[in-house]
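Slide 14.
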Amino acid sequence: MVVGIWDEGHMADSQAGEFLKGALFYAAVASFAAILPIWPYGYYILLRWVVTGVSVYALVTIPTLGSGQRAALAGITLIFNPLIPVHLSRGIWTIFNLGVGGYFLLLRGKMTVVVAEPDPSELQK
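Slide 15: predicted structure.
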């Protein structure tokens, strides 16, 4: 899976892809950490913002997502949405946190960040 910000059909910058890889990793760690019953309620609210933000960023940044991957990220966005929160039991949230953490790590592992070579004709302009 190639990741980057597309600009007129060309890969513009690999920084977006590297940022996304880091964001997916840290959101996964935060999601796994949420399983521990040691956090104040504010941690879970922050987690909602982080997971939703990373999901939306992945949706708009990765041009090669399949329809299943887009549906998974859209579902994560809806479930973790902090503006219209979904209230579930702790056991259900544990399952979601494990699933989201695993999915984010899986998605991160499939990413390949590519830096496109500039077109020589564009350099002469």
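Speaker note: The longest strand covers residues 10-13.
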